[in-house]
TrEMBL record:
Domain of life: Bacteria
Protein known as: Rv3651-like N-terminal domain-containing protein
Keywords assigned by UniProt, alphabetized: Plasmid
Length: 320
């Protein structure tokens, strides 16, 4: 038995919910499977799997971790800001541990739409948050890749309608300071008070790389427009892109107060119908339309395109 060693992150809540060790990620990549179904991918034979399982189960139970001759063993627990254990990062191998991947723990309140983050590096998101600070999700996604909105909106829908213990996951990327940072996150839905309380407890892994598209951001970058992406049914603002981005929470709330999202559900209203509004006394023209996706996910997001009224008039004159 030769266990070469790799960092493995255990989904603690998922393991307890399913009654078996559930692996969140390993070797810096998504796994989302029980240990028995992914052990071979880590180069573990039956004996190696049994050793790794024994280490994990001892750590989860709070027992002394068994010492094994010839093997390096290291564990690191990830707790959310309210003290809930969500992840156990484990190394078992004949080689000394390599640098540990970056993991953060978080809790998302689906009623308040706020997150609290803790863990290895909360500065990754570029939103100047403090560890354990409660902030609206819009701050977390200030520099979000717009194409990731579809999967995130689908995840929100699942969290708002799903059952206790459901696994909700997403790949996503941010670009704070002009540099892309990539993540894979998964969370477990916690219901209390007869469903009146919905919390999502999760783990985020920073990825070394990720293949993704960024077409919307590229289109907006070369115009004077600002794009606000929103989950329409619950009016959850996700991110802003373009000339006036990032927009603060108060400004976004002011826009949503003035824009008629319900018009999207009315087939008699043209999809490119314009609405006039003001932001800090500056007149804007807003076009609102749904961003339908071919993906089998619930809750299509809505795009609000904002253009300063003078800019819109100039554009119309140039086109005529």
């Amino acid at each position: 038995m030769a266990i070469q060693g790799t960092w493995i992150c255990v989904d603690i809540i998922g393991s307890r919910h399913g009654g078996d060790v559930f692996i969140h990620s390993g070797a810096g990549a998504r796994v989302a499977r029980p240990l028995a179904r992914c052990a071979k991918g880590f180069g573990l034979d039956k004996k190696g799997e049994a050793v790794v399982r024994a280490v994990i189960e001892a750590a989860l139970a709070g027992r002394e971790i068994p010492k094994i001759d010839g093997l390096y063993v290291e564990t690191h627990q990830i707790d959310t800001s309210d003290g809930t254990p969500v992840g156990l990062v484990v190394w078992v191998g004949v080689q000394p541990p390599t640098p540990r991947p970056v993991y953060n723990g978080w809790v998302l309140d689906m009623q308040a739409m706020t997150t609290r983050t803790s863990g290895d590096n909360v500065d990754l998101y570029g939103d100047v948050r403090e560890a354990d600070e409660e902030r609206h999700v819009m701050y977390l996604f200030t520099y979000l890749n717009p194409e990731d909105v579809w999967s995130l909106v689908g995840g929100y829908y699942d969290a708002l309608t799903g059952d206790h213990g459901d696994l909700i996951e997403s790949y996503w990327s941010l670009q704070p300071g002009g540099q892309w940072v990539h993540f894979w996150s998964s969370g477990r839905l916690h219901l209390a008070d007869g469903g009146g309380t919905r919390l999502l407890y999760g783990i985020t892994l920073q990825l070394e790389e990720r293949k993704f598209e960024s077409n919307i951001a590229s289109l907006i970058r070369y115009s004077n427009a600002t794009l606000l992406l929103v989950e329409a049914s619950h009016k959850i603002p996700l991110t802003t892109v373009g000339r006036h981005a990032p927009m603060g929470e108060d400004r976004v709330a002011h826009v949503l107060e003035q824009v008629d999202l319900a018009a999207l559900a009315n087939p008699e209203v043209p999809r490119d119908a314009e609405q006039r509004l003001s932001i800090d006394g500056v007149p804007f023209i807003a076009s609102t339309f749904a961003l339908h996706s071919a993906r089998e996910k619930h809750g299509d997001p809505v795009a609000i395109v904002l253009l300063v009224e003078d800019d819109a008039s100039t554009a119309e004159s140039a086109a005529s």
